[in-house]
Amino acid sequence: MASVDMDPDVARRLFEEGATLVLLGVPQGTELGIDYKSWKVGPRFRGVKMIPPGLHFLHYSSSNPAHIGGETGPKTSLFLTLKSREILLANWDPKEEDLDFSPSENEEEVSRVRANLRDLDPFLGPYPYEVMRKWVSLTDRLTQDVANQLQPLSGRVCAFCDVIPELQLKHTKDREEQNLPKNDVACQSMKEGLEKLPQMKQREGTELRFSSIPSQTYPPGATPAQITQCSLDLSYALVNLLEKHYKLKPLDVLGELQFAFVCFVIGNVYDGFEHWKRLLALLCRSEDAMRSHKELYLGLIAVLYHQLGEIPPDFFVDIVSQDNFLTSTLQDFFQFAIGPGVDSTLRKRAEKFKVHLTKKFRWDFDADLDDCAPVVVDLPEGVTPE
């Protein structure tokens, strides 16, 4: 880890009040980072010191030695909430290629490390203080409770899903009992080959526990006119999500938006990007909710301001520009934000944000994006147009 230029008073305060991650046995060459910074682990590395109290994102990728390729494995991450002066102790498990935090539960072991902390100090890299402001701006709405609620039960956020076969078919007779094609005959087509592949599912406890975004955007018994309206204005679906997951603290949904963004941008979890898109579309296309949830939407603008400020410019070319998702979603948001009944503060903030994005990314939010195209709405079974 490289040295960090830091104000001496800040350094002293962080050394005295900051938390410490003692990470023993991490192999040299492992890519390891905390929050918005990562390094290649060197031979003297024993952990990270002077960590500001609060929520952090630890991430690491094992790698092969240079003489056998030096490839880096998929990233594993976890959210940690650290207290002032806390010492969190972990040992590297070479079999699992993961950190084992169980030593932190041994009070005697933690006390021993604490007593020898000054001897350990030369082997501890300082927290990358230069990224602290950036990290806080990306997670200011994300609480420990929300992070715990969304993080997999396994405690690990993995870049690639841990999948297992839905059916354990070890023998030919097992496939016959399930009426599946045998594997002892060459495939005659791609379709036949795909049918022979086992159906996979994500290992229980490893999936991210995002809020479920309602697939039905209208209330039971809705008329065709109501269904059409609820398909144009997603407020009914948004309110349902808030009632189900964030009834006591509706603004915590912004923490989920930040959680998904961090999982994707830092943790390399594509499901995080997909959920970020869906949740953002739900928020931006809820016109009625915009009039009744002023603080939520003021917060949304602030969250997006920091998120879009941290994404590399080519990110939009490669991903977000597909189907022009972000510009079309934000175009709806800005259109609703100047509608009747919207709080004047929110309207002004939205107008400033629109100008900022237009200048920064040269996006045209006033372009005609298929305004004349008909809206196709799926009607419930048994409902006919009026």
From TrEMBL:
Listed InterPro entries: AAR2, AAR2_C, AAR2_C_sf, Aar2_N, AAR2_N_sf
Residue span(s) of domain AAR2 N-terminal: 17-152
Pfam families found in the cross-reference section: AAR2, AAR2_1st
Gene Ontology BP terms: spliceosomal tri-snRNP complex assembly
Domain AAR2 C-terminal: from-to ranges: 210-366
Gene Ontology CC annotation, any one: spliceosomal complex
Quaternary state and interactors: Interacts with PRPF8 (via RNase H homology domain). Component of a U5 snRNP complex that contains PRPF8.
Entry function: Component of the U5 snRNP complex that is required for spliceosome assembly and for pre-mRNA splicing.
Entry's family note: Belongs to the AAR2 family.
Name of protein: Protein AAR2 homolog
Organism per entry: Gadus morhua (Atlantic cod)
Lineage start: Eukaryota, Metazoa, Chordata, Craniata, Vertebrata
Encoding gene, per UniProt annotation: aar2
